[in-house]
Amino acid sequence: MKIEFNSEREFDIIAIGRACIDLxxxxxxxxMEETMTFKKYVGGSPANxxxxxxxxGLKSGFIGKLxxxxxxxxxxxxxxxxxxxxxxxxxxxxxxxxxxAFTEIKSPEECSILMYRDEVAxxxxxxxxxxxxxxxxxxxxxxxxxxxxxxxSREAILKAVQLAKKNDVKVIxxxxxxxxxxxxxxxxxxxxxxVAQQADVVVGTRDEFDVMENIEAGSNEATISALFNHxxxxxxxxxxVEGSYAYTKxxxxxxxxxxxxxxxxxxxxxxxxxxxxxxALITGKDIETALKYGSASAAIVVSKxxxxxxxPTVEEIEKLIADRSKEAVTNQ
Amino acid sequence: MKIEFNSEREFDIIAIGRACIDLxxxxxxxxMEETMTFKKYVGGSPANxxxxxxxxGLKSGFIGKLxxxxxxxxxxxxxxxxxxxxxxxxxxxxxxxxxxAFTEIKSPEECSILMYRDEVAxxxxxxxxxxxxxxxxxxxxxxxxxxxxxxxSREAILKAVQLAKKNDVKVIxxxxxxxxxxxxxxxxxxxxxxVAQQADVVVGTRDEFDVMENIEAGSNEATISALFNHxxxxxxxxxxVEGSYAYTKxxxxxxxxxxxxxxxxxxxxxxxxxxxxxxALITGKDIETALKYGSASAAIVVSKxxxxxxxPTVEEIEKLIADRSKEAVTNQ
Amino acid sequence: MKIEFNSEREFDIIAIGRACIDLxxxxxxxxMEETMTFKKYVGGSPANxxxxxxxxGLKSGFIGKLxxxxxxxxxxxxxxxxxxxxxxxxxxxxxxxxxxAFTEIKSPEECSILMYRDEVAxxxxxxxxxxxxxxxxxxxxxxxxxxxxxxxSREAILKAVQLAKKNDVKVIxxxxxxxxxxxxxxxxxxxxxxVAQQADVVVGTRDEFDVMENIEAGSNEATISALFNHxxxxxxxxxxVEGSYAYTKxxxxxxxxxxxxxxxxxxxxxxxxxxxxxxALITGKDIETALKYGSASAAIVVSKxxxxxxxPTVEEIEKLIADRSKEAVTNQ
Amino acid sequence: MKIEFNSEREFDIIAIGRACIDLxxxxxxxxMEETMTFKKYVGGSPANxxxxxxxxGLKSGFIGKLxxxxxxxxxxxxxxxxxxxxxxxxxxxxxxxxxxAFTEIKSPEECSILMYRDEVAxxxxxxxxxxxxxxxxxxxxxxxxxxxxxxxSREAILKAVQLAKKNDVKVIxxxxxxxxxxxxxxxxxxxxxxVAQQADVVVGTRDEFDVMENIEAGSNEATISALFNHxxxxxxxxxxVEGSYAYTKxxxxxxxxxxxxxxxxxxxxxxxxxxxxxxALITGKDIETALKYGSASAAIVVSKxxxxxxxPTVEEIEKLIADRSKEAVTNQ
Lengths: 332, 332, 332, 332
Description:
Number of helices of chain A: 10
Organism (chains A, B, C, D): Sporosarcina globispora
Pfam family, one (chains A, B, C, D): PfkB
Order of helices and strands of chain A: EEEHEHEEEHEHEHEHHEEEHHHE
Strand content of chain A: 15-25%
Catalytic activity (chains A, B, C, D): 5-dehydro-2-deoxy-D-gluconate + ATP = 6-phospho-5-dehydro-2-deoxy-D-gluconate + ADP + H(+)
Distance between the termini of chain A: 14 Å
GO molecular function, one term (chains A, B, C, D): 5-dehydro-2-deoxygluconokinase activity
Structural class of chain A: alpha/beta
Oligomer: homotetramer
CATH superfamily of chain A: Ribokinase
Pathway (chains A, B, C, D): Polyol metabolism; myo-inositol degradation into acetyl-CoA; acetyl-CoA from myo-inositol: step 5/7
């Protein structure tokens, strides 16, 4: 099965949601309280995906709100610099700040993140700042779940999804769950269910699907059975080192395997996975191949220091896949 | 066309949302600042509809949150007294208050309402307090738009709609727009659109549909054309004294006429209309007849002092229709 | 001892703080959930004192913020009607509402009050709306403790006290504690202590002084010992039916006795007490006599239906004192 | 004139308020959006003063609230490491974050700061966490104005001042104005006036005193004339490169001159000034000498990268004063 995209569209993908700052520990292998220096990168799941797909050669755009300060300016300049269209990135006028993520790299197994998400500019994106004219120029609208955590960003996302569906733009929903900003698990479940039912492709970890269903230890079968009653055509459920499963509405199941690599830190894996997976789908590859692209891209990013700057090129991905041809994807 | 309901269900209708207090001016024909005495009634659109349908002989239930004080107690006792099932009306534990509506009756044309809606208990209904077991015992879930205005009531409603659709419960969406508690017109439009697209029947005034579409002076044709791409089977658009239009997905249009009456005040008309209209649909009457029931019920309530206590019986409605048989409903 | 006031001043007293609506049960001797009709009066401690002193013939003014609706208009018209200067009562422009107090009159011993104090206009009085030119025209600034419960009203009061002290205006602090709007007992204690130390006269019940000191069952001796290290010259501590004690910085103690009366309800007693007590002080009576005036005024108000409209005249007070001459005040 | 301190006390100084993180640009002479690496230091005016006085050999303590994360841990470890007593630094349990200050060092004249002050832990210090037993062990309570910007920190400070005055602890008020967190200029003026009137020593820039008085271009004469009607014995008003003036209640005026130095950045100057000035007063030096110590300490800090780590020793200060003996303080 292949997902069909509207080939007339100028943009391959428009991502919506947060664009933030990562402050990554320069000194490794120690707790953050002993880390004295931090290096600055653009971060935030949908921003990383816009950057990642742009570096893979797709035409990407971004809808989001930036702080009116040096951090906001840096993000806009960086994203424009790697080719992302920033014409729909608006600047906050009410003193909200850029979200921050300080990373601690104690060991490959222990990577914690200290988030600054109070009153951040990205959550103040207003529905009036979401343009139908812009969205309808794209094949894909990429929605990340965190942007649903607070009003008015929540309503901006819901409006964007309504506009995408009205204009034949495929909606990709990356669950991207961050407990920090949500009022309750019930609240998360309501909005995740709402958007997942309207999306064409849903991507997340098994844990994130459990959050969506407000249950513990849910099964992939129950998840896809419920979702395929609604809009989704393709559901990708990631199980960490065990690899990932892609389910299609027509009944196929594909399994993708993780590529072993020397891990520096774990964050950034999901966004690089999504970027390469979507790149493969958009360029007409089949789902098995897309799963390989996703895994290869993730393997490259977890071995490097940043999430955004480390996003690989097509050549790097394809080289890794070729080198590891025995770590295959099997159609079960 | 007739709407089909699941005949196995114990409840005809479960309404969800606010149950409040109306404080109606005892002295008429003067501005409120000169009104010295107020009489207390239960109010709030979905509470009025639960009461109205119960007085018409239907089995009604209510999901909502009440203040933990004498006003909350009065509401629960009154609703139980007229036969509404109050088993799913929960009591707030955080000091929130009962919503109030002081009414001013200057003249039949000038009836203003002074609302107390800050931090009211009904808007604190939590999604965890919405029970799937309860909702699936009903033919209909009646949702009123005001309950979407604030979290967590908003999420409670969205969850109730998800549960209703999952369990073959018809969703009736009464737009019931009150500007007071909404953050912006964009926000209202997003949630009204969301719920209307998922509802089976949508009822509102032309002005309320304009709010839903975030436009001025919209047309019924555009409204139904957009909605019939989604779940709705029946859309009722009210045009005040000009009467109302009922549109079906199968392409029929019905017009209902208002019955002339001696008007004391205008509020309460919409809720009595909805009660009798739904009563007629549930008891298997056709849409033309349901429109007459709605108009007759509204005509009775606007001639009386309250909204809830004035809800008519079936006999009163049928007598008025018989008396006014020349004020007909025409299938256009 | 007598308190000396600046005799050059145009106003005898300017009160600052809340002016609200009381909705008093028309039907007595029943719980509020069975009360169906409510009568409207002006309420709120400082408003009652402005009204009470004006009815006693003093020149009173008021600083406060009113809702921009019919309730706000009623308050302004009523207060102007009884002679209070309303030139410094500003109208809120942000949709805040008038505070409400529904009263339940079950029996003389059981009178509860159901308060609406969320987002009320009076607590939005801004320091920029407090005029030095106005305050310095008065002998007395009457501050009620409840106005300290929330910003910006809190800052408006603190500024008014600073301006009063700068301009030789006596500050009377009526503790008037209402737990409802305060964040914590610690918070109340901090601001009550701050204003009490700067006041010239402090008036409250023993319970209210305990709140100020954040202790249980405090002693009058400890209270006055701490306060007389600061500005206060006179401290009045009320002990309910046991009567009240007035302490002067110069070391005198006076005891006032309550006049027995047929009690309808207990609320309003404190404000009528303060009005008459201040009237007596301002008109040059000694403290013993002022205590009698206070007790007599309270006895009259508790036998009537309202707090504001029931405020007595000088003749009524003096007649009651003459009639009850054996219920004396003794200098201990 | 010399300020007399209670010589029996264990602590020389207890500071109260914020302890935060400075993230100073590692790369200089460029705008912050082009700065890619940041170095972490403890920051916040009262924390800097506790650190500065401790490094000068005084016994310092600190009252404040820290985030329950790696940044909070770093601050506590660092302050304990330089000898500050951290027994009254409490850890927030509600997810609040450490305040941040990103510094931009474009040039010695252009040093901007990007503050993260939303929902920070230090502003959640509760009055219940301020201990009378701790405060009364100190000669001095050092209060910084920023801690008055929000509740409950505001009430914690007001309580601390009440306890200090009750227990013969000198109150030093460092105005330390940061516009960011205040609701309005009126609000700042109310609380600055309140605390300044109760303090023994008030220190600030001319601009900060203008904020306190809510005027533009105020005069030192008017400032001291108003303050000396209340508690202050000593008022220090800083005029930047023109130097500073110290006024005593007994009528003396002293002028301190700035020491010229090679400036790297301007921030940190005020805190190092206050640390050395207070050190000199506490160790019994006269006011002229204290002004020199303050200026010398400021000159040293502005030539270095951090505010806290750069705090000089007594030897460094005295060496600079000796080297620059011709840049004198004159008694005018």
